[in-house]
Here is the input.
Amino acid sequence: MLLFGNPTLANLISIGLAMLIGMTIHEFMHNYVAWLMGDPTPERQGRLTLDPRVHIYWPGWLMWVIIGFGILGLAPINPGLMNYPRVRWANQLSRVQRYGLSVLAGPLGNLLVAVIFAVPFRILIATAPQVLFTTPVILGNTNFLPSLGKLLNDMVFWNLLMMFFNLIPLGMIDGRHILKMFLPPEMHYQYDAFQDQYGNFVLLGLIMLSFIGINIFGPLILGPTNALTRLLLG
Here is the structure.
């Protein structure tokens, strides 16, 4: 697992749980807000649920385990069907804005998860810090199970990492559609043409550069992730 420098069982369990919960909330939020914006697809496909089995994309998970990058989940929403929003205020938005909101909901869901799990960490670090780092998440051998502190820390860090990564405005990443929401309509055609032709290639190139030591993603993703993690955890 190239992404993780310490592939112990406890570490893999902790990160795996953080990513599984993060992926589930991320994809659920995409689907739920798309449904609010009028798209019937999430309801028809049974995706308005927090069951991770509905959202997980197994080939992408295998890629993530092997190389540290992959599409963990899917939300097959259809912006072309966002004609009759279920919330009145959305009638004032364009279809591009409705779709952008459904895409933005995914990263915001990860931020929400990070904030929720930061709360018990802050409470315990102030009142009973020994509980965080000596107690496994369930009764058992701490050599094989992550401590409560490790799990809470990973829930915050990896969800923030997922959020910032998905804000990249390139190719298949959520940020492409989030940025488009703020562009004037006369720029949409040129923007989509660039993304369709070059977006995925630029993204793939940046990922490949990170594997040879030219880490463009460091200041763009890890920097903000580490800063916000420290802010939330104290």
Notes: Residues 9-233 form one domain.
